[in-house]
From TrEMBL:
<feature type="transmembrane region" description="Helical">
    <location>
        <begin position="182"/>
        <end position="213"/>
    </location>
</feature>
<keyword id="KW-0472">Membrane</keyword>
<dbReference type="InterPro" id="IPR004728">
    <property type="entry name" value="Sec62"/>
</dbReference>
<feature type="compositionally biased region" description="Basic and acidic residues">
    <location>
        <begin position="325"/>
        <end position="342"/>
    </location>
</feature>
<keyword id="KW-1133">Transmembrane helix</keyword>
<feature type="transmembrane region" description="Helical">
    <location>
        <begin position="153"/>
        <end position="176"/>
    </location>
</feature>
<keyword id="KW-0812">Transmembrane</keyword>
<dbReference type="GO" id="GO:0005789">
    <property type="term" value="C:endoplasmic reticulum membrane"/>
</dbReference>
<keyword id="KW-0811">Translocation</keyword>
<comment type="similarity">
    <text>Belongs to the SEC62 family.</text>
</comment>
<protein>
    <recommendedName>
        <fullName>Translocation protein SEC62</fullName>
    </recommendedName>
</protein>
<feature type="region of interest" description="Disordered">
    <location>
        <begin position="307"/>
        <end position="342"/>
    </location>
</feature>
<keyword id="KW-0813">Transport</keyword>
<keyword id="KW-0653">Protein transport</keyword>
<keyword id="KW-0256">Endoplasmic reticulum</keyword>
<dbReference type="GO" id="GO:0031204">
    <property type="term" value="P:post-translational protein targeting to membrane, translocation"/>
</dbReference>
<feature type="region of interest" description="Disordered">
    <location>
        <begin position="1"/>
        <end position="34"/>
    </location>
</feature>
Length: 342
């Protein structure tokens, strides 16, 4: 009987206090040599073929996977098990129990166990998790979260050093040359216009299909999601609607609300003259921003200081003029003294 088989029979109970910190589950590495199961866990976690999601457990974001997906992953990728050496022939159940025993993963359970209103079944990937009481492999629906810190990729390290430079470049935008300002301005405006267009088209298609067909179908990816993968960003075909069909009363209500909103927007829309004024105002602001430069700022400061200098000169004449006035006054005093003497 192998070591993994003996560890499979152990049943670890989670502590009664649910406030246990996940940092206590960090694997202990004896010496400088990594354990083969630690290397195996890092290899599996970095592999994108094992589907995983992010969730909240004890106010901490964790990455987790499903037990049935792990079994299928090992069957399709036998080369990953070569890292285990003598234990490479073990079953997925034995490997899971060994990872649990070494605190590389922890078994979780969904925090919300009731079906939400409007849904037929529980979510396949819950957003909130809690620690399961029995820390063993199960053939039923079981979730397992990684407890160790994921190794940072090289591009992430490089990107962390580049972010301060990007922030500095954004602050120096006013001193850029005119051509660079044009490129940056139109690039940012194009990206913003693309995002707004995608959101509007996505919402319009969803609303039309919801009101007409009673289907909740989201085309295009959700670019507002906090956590998403590149595969989801390039997904344009909608997922299967798992909820029950909405009632006709709710569809009629949303149809009436949509019509009222459209009529309200049309009634308060600006006329041609107002749109022309807004366009001129925005155009002037953009031109002023693009034409600004340090040289113009310095010349403007000098022009503001010029009237002050002129006023100072008028109040205080030059040295030559003042000396001439003083000499004239002295001569007048001497003449007055001579007249008094005579």
């Amino acid at each position: 009987m192998t070591k993994s088989a003996t560890e499979k029979k152990r049943v670890r109970r989670a502590p009664s206090s649910t406030g246990r910190d996940l940092a206590e589950n960090q694997p202990k590495q004896p010496g400088s040599k990594k354990d083969v199961y630690q290397l195996f866990a890092e290899k599996v976690r970095d592999n994108k073929q094992l589907k995983s999601k992010w969730a909240i457990m004890q106010e901490t974001r964790v990455e987790y996977f499903r037990g049935k997906d792990f079994v299928v992953f090992l069957k399709d990728h036998l080369e990953v098990k070569e890292i285990l050496g003598p234990d490479k022939d073990c079953e997925a159940e034995d490997i899971i129990n060994t990872l649990l025993g070494r605190n590389l993963i922890i078994r979780c359970d969904r925090a919300v166990k009731t079906v939400r209103p409007g849904k037929k079944k529980l979510s396949s990937w819950p957003v909130h998790l809690e620690i399961h009481n029995e820390q063993v492999f199960s053939k039923d629906v079981a979730f397992f979260a990684w407890t160790f810190m994921k190794r940072r990729a090289l591009w992430q390290t490089i990107l962390s050093f580049l972010w301060p430079l990007v922030a500095l470049a954004m602050c120096l935008f006013p001193v850029y040359p005119y051509q660079v300002k044009i490129v940056v301005l139109y690039s940012c405006a194009g990206a913003l216009l693309f995002i707004v267009t995608i959101l509007l088209i996505r919402a319009a298609i969803f609303g039309a299909l919801f009101i007409i067909l009673g289907k909740r179908i989201w085309f295009f990816p959700n670019i507002n999601a906090e956590e998403t993968t590149f595969r989801e960003l390039v997904r344009f075909w909608p997922k299967k609607d798992e909820g029950e069909a909405p009632k006709w009363t709710s569809r009629l209500f949303y149809a009436i609300v949509s019509v009222l909103v459209i009529l309200l927007l049309r009634h308060h829309a600006p006329d041609e003259a107002a749109r022309a004024r807004y366009q001129t105002k925005v155009s002037n602001i953009i031109d002023e921003m693009l034409d600004w430069s340090p040289k113009l700022a310095i010349s403007g400061m000098l022009e503001k200081q010029q009237p002050v200098v002129n006023a100072t000169e008028k109040g205080h004449p030059t040295d030559g003029t003042s000396s001439k006035v003083e000499s004239d006054e002295v001569e007048k005093e001497h003449l007055v003294d001579d007249e008094n003497v005579t």
